[in-house]
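Budget justification, computational time. The allocation requested in the original proposal was used primarily to generate structure tokens for proteins on the priority list. As evidence of use, we reproduce two of the resulting records. The first is shown immediately below.
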Amino acid sequence: MSAPEPPKVEIIQKLDSQVPLDLTFVDESGKSVALRDLVKDKPVVLALVYYECPMLCGEIMQGMVAVFNELEFAIGKEFEVITVSFDPREKPELASIKKQNVMQAYKLPDSSGGWHFLTTDKEENVRALAEAVGFQYLYLPSVDEYAHGSAIMVLTPKGKVSRYFYGIEYPEQDLRFGLMDAAEERIGSLADEIRLLCYRYDPSSGSYGFVIMAAIRITGGLTVAFLAILIGVLLFQERRRKMPGVHEQPLVTP
């Protein structure tokens, strides 16, 4: 007898989809919050997990902490993080324990106010959120576990889906560019913005790829600008040398 096939759960990209901001959850302190209270003026990293997941969800959060520790951006300052349990049996007390464990591994533990761990006993609320971002999950009574995919999403400050990053490890450059895109480049350095011009988000892979033509244009533009400045300086020196009463200074004085 062949083993049953695993249930099919997918993450269906819904770029630019609006997350329902009126949905309410309970945070790790037991306080009722609406998503609009958390999604306001910064881009948001969103993860749908369940806190008692025996393996995958813990690896997702470890991957999040690892990349957050590499980012120059700080949680609560340049971006917010929202982790939502899709298991309606999980309570704020469990979310609080999970948050404490995760924040101990983050380089800026004082930023805990920017990472929100949510639960809800209203399954319709988390289902609506999951549907908005294309995240599928399925409860398996036989093993008392959930089947689900692995990804984090980036939302704009208005709560629209901007980027997906798959797996359990997230390259720092990809997430940095994703946050910059979601924030409409209102965060990040000038060097970051110039580099971003050379990279393009690929929805199929959930990553940023190098765009050779953009790089050539930027490199060519910088080269032309440098040559124009150099020629201008040389012409200025030549005109100045030919002006009456202007003489070259000797390199070595006796």
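The second record produced under the same allocation is shown here.
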Amino acid sequence: MPDDTERRTAVDPERRTAKDSMATGARVTGRGFASVARGTGRFSRFAFRSARRAAAAEGADTSGLSRIIELGALNAAADAAVAISLAGTLFFQIPTGQARGQVSLFLALTLLPFAIVAPLIGPVLDRFSHGRRWAIAATMAARAFLVWALAGSVDSDSLWLFPAALGVLVGSKAYNVARAAALPRVLPEGLTLVTANARTSMAGMVGVVISAPIAVGLAAIGPAWCLRYAFVLFVVGTIMSIRLPSRVDSTQGEDNIGFLTGESPDSPETSRARGRGTIRIPPSMSFALRANCGPRWLSGFLTLFMAFLLRDHPIDGYSPQFLLAAVIGSAGLGNFVGIAAGSVFKRVNPKVAVVLAMLADAAAAILAAVSYGLFTLCLLGFVAGLAQCLAKLSLDSTIQRDVPERVRTSAFARSDTTLQLAWVVGGFVGLALPANPRAGMITAAVVLVAWSLFVLASPSRRAPEPKAVGA
């Protein structure tokens, strides 16, 4: 029998071979991570430089619009970090009945931020018409404080967790309406509001693309680190908000109370409206808002209906996760194409855009009902994302053009609340329907066709429209 020395001699080559393999694998893995890091860095720098050039194009750098676009990218990056840190991944791990109950509660809770922003914060922000920079900075600073508090309570059962998370959502909505209300003040000559809003949205997407990998890496260490990263972004955003150009605080030429009612600036009716700080919704905004409810309803419906339908009744040959990812990816692609189209087109008629978006959604839903399959579902998702994006850009430009500055922030807050309500109603309908593909698609098509007829036949479409301001 071989002694211990001979056995060790026989085993040592095997150990050395294993160690050499592990070392080689470690070197290969390290080089792979380094290559990925270099590639991500190059892409991030390219995206950043491209976004800077686009933000400064056509006079946006001299008017101050580029500053707001860059601030929008930073805001989206910080919001993405917060969302990633708080995101859950339990949907596919719980029974369908329990998931429906939890999603219903989530749908109800999504209205809370809007219920606070519309009646409370919107009028308060309107009173900062001469201090928009400080109003926008306040939304950034408040979220910086709240995410720092979240970082200390996310790993514990602190009672501050949910109030702080709700506060961050409210601050995000307040920032969006304040920024949208201030954008017309820095619009360069020759650039339309639809294009300016599209460029702001595009910058937000770039911010998310750059920030998301960083946030995911920090979230792997711990959600608190991801929130601290968001804190830094919000602090930088606060400083950038204060350093916005002085034109953001100027109200010259914006005292247009009475502009929509046809009264002279010195009439008693105009004076009473100015004193109350209120004004009736212009026909153009009413029409655009109603038209937007159709695409937004479809978005909520598809999000919830498809999530349960594809899990319980997947298409043969495809996993539920793949199908849901394909539909969501198609919707994201449609959203991106809509933003790109809005930022490139020189002239976009908002009324025509919202009508086409509504009718395109109805046609895609009918096609999916007649021929249910992977292609038609992806096409429906693409059209839904494209239509929702173009319709929202058109609505924002209509409000910025036709609603007086004195109540513009409140108009944005109330329009966002209405659209969120439409999304929630669509989500509840998607939850309530049985997981039957054709029944769901037919329901969506019928609702969209009926709503399209209602909007097109509404009196607000036939009412005389005000003269356009700021294109």
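A brief technical remark on that second record: Residues 285 and 398 are 6 Å apart (CA to CA).
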